[in-house]
Amino acid sequence: MTDERRKFKRESAEARKEALILATLELVAENGVRGATVRGIAERADVTQGLIRHYFSSKEELIIAAYEHHMNQMTDLTFAPGAAAGSARARLRAFVDGSLTPPVVDPRALALWASFLNKVQNDPQMKETHQRTYAYFRDRLEALIAVALEEAGRPAPAARLRQLAIACNAVIDGLWLEGGALPDAFGAGELVEIGRQSVAAITGLDLTQEAET
Amino acid sequence: MTDERRKFKRESAEARKEALILATLELVAENGVRGATVRGIAERADVTQGLIRHYFSSKEELIIAAYEHHMNQMTDLTFAPGAAAGSARARLRAFVDGSLTPPVVDPRALALWASFLNKVQNDPQMKETHQRTYAYFRDRLEALIAVALEEAGRPAPAARLRQLAIACNAVIDGLWLEGGALPDAFGAGELVEIGRQSVAAITGLDLTQEAET
DNA sequence: CGAGTAATTATGCAAGTGTATAATTTCTCC
DNA sequence: GGAGAAATTATACACTTGCATAATTACTCG
Predict the structure, then answer these.
(1) How many domains does chain B have?
(2) In a domain? residue B210
(3) Of A7, A129, A172, B50, which sits most exposed with the smallest number of CB within 10 A?
(4) Are residues A147 and A75 part of one domain?
């Protein structure tokens, strides 16, 4: 009955890093950044803690890598759906829909966002990632609104477009936040419905009709 | 040169608890809940750590007390301004204004909200406080919208009112979030301006005009 | 002004933290 | 199939954490 040294299998650096990052995101979502301990992450990834040091020079570096992984995934999820759709109005509607349905709207996604916020505000590298992601979102939304308004024969000046983009982004963010914070407070499709109506009311564009082929 | 025992002054339980809570909120905003250590809090409150145990049976209890203190303060700040104003439309406008100006819109307030979120999702007592506060906000907003629409001669059914309240709450929350996350991204009064316009567009009420005496 | 009491400080402890380093195992390549 | 190298495990260390408990101080009240 002697304690035997643990068996293991060698994996590619890529696979191991990804596994460690995913385990990190799980624990950060559950317990916050400080609650995601090196030992806990290693256990979740079914690995011993020394390995983390082998792939990341510090816990800090792993956290940053996990944050960037998460942010990239969120933008992909939001923009992938309607990227190829036809009219700008249809793409705008797809953007709203994608932003207000799972897995974007999700308690875990919100928990991750909140958990990272402190570090985002302090760490320069994470701050830069955050600002870049936010600007990407809003610029893309602003461009979509601009084209959709032109399509509708009601082009708007730059200052006005900026306000509309900020406002639409805010409704979407607010609904995303509330949907993640109180998952049982809204019926199926309710957030999408309210999101469409609100963006429509703010921009004056009709987003309720069926998508054109 | 002997180490002398530290001098101190006795304070009322009320004052000490409040000081400890304020110190806790500072540290939670800066470093998150786990980063707010008992020793750090004691130092910030200019007290030794043993005293915390004297007033709160555990760190957990202090955190909960700090959270409730913060939430109460936020609701007071939001509703105090326009409580006595005349028309429902004026009160609605005051609500928007109060929600979108400092100290409600503030990086620290956002950091606190984010830092507490994890515990809010797990701890039943904190969850209850959160849901109660959210419901209070939204019900109050919904009532305000209902009366304002009646004033304007356009009463709305309950289902519609619910949607309008959710939507308006979302814009306000979203703008609050973005104002706190990116304090330098918006000009003075810009959030209030956009907030008024958006709530106006969603509800169909005019909030841009000057307040009536 | 002096005793009693509650507030406050001081000290200690066991568990958990990130990180460094040594010991071993798995795989590749000849 | 065996040597070399890299991946992985194991162990140790200094430090921080929350909490418990003992020692002291400041204030109250007769």
Answers:
(1) 2
(2) no
(3) A7
(4) yes
pLDDT by residue, tens only, chain B of 213 residues:
456 889 999 999 999 999 999 999 999 999 999 999 999 999 999 999 999 999 999 999 999 999 999 999 998 888 776 667 788 999 999 999 999 999 999 999 999 999 999 999 999 999 999 999 999 999 999 999 999 999 999 999 999 999 999 999 999 999 999 999 999 999 999 999 999 999 999 999 998 765 443
Please indicate, yes or no, whether residues A29 and A76 belong to a single structural domain of this protein.
no
Same domain assignment for residues A31 and A91? no
Provide residues of A within 8 Å CB-CB of chain B: 30-35, 107, 110-111, 113-115, 117-118, 121, 130-131, 134, 163, 166-167, 169-175, 177-178, 181-182, 186, 190, 193-194, 197-198, 201-202
Tokens of B50: 């043993």
Contacts with B167 from chain A: Cβ below 8 Å: 171, 175, 194, 197-198, 201
Whether A211 is covered by a domain: the verdict is no
Q: Is residue A212 part of a domain?
A: no
Residue A151's domain is classified under what CATH number? Answer: 1.10.357.10
**Alpha-carbon distance B84 to nearest alpha carbon in chain A (angstroms):** 28
ipTM of the complex in this document: 0.90
**Mutation target among B34, B112, B121, B136 for the A interface, most CBs of A within 10 A:** B121
Residue recorded with tokens 């308690």: A107
Residues A101-114: what's their mean pLDDT? 95
In a domain, B211, yes or no: no
Q: What domain range includes position B39?
A: 10-56
Q: Is B147 exposed, middle or buried (0-12, 13-18, 19+ CB in 10 A)?
A: middle
Residue A57's identity, in one-letter code, is S
Q: Does residue A72 share a domain with residue A46?
A: no
Helices B107-122 and A107-122 sit at what angle, rounded to 10 degrees?
Answer: 140
* Chain centroid to CA A206: 26
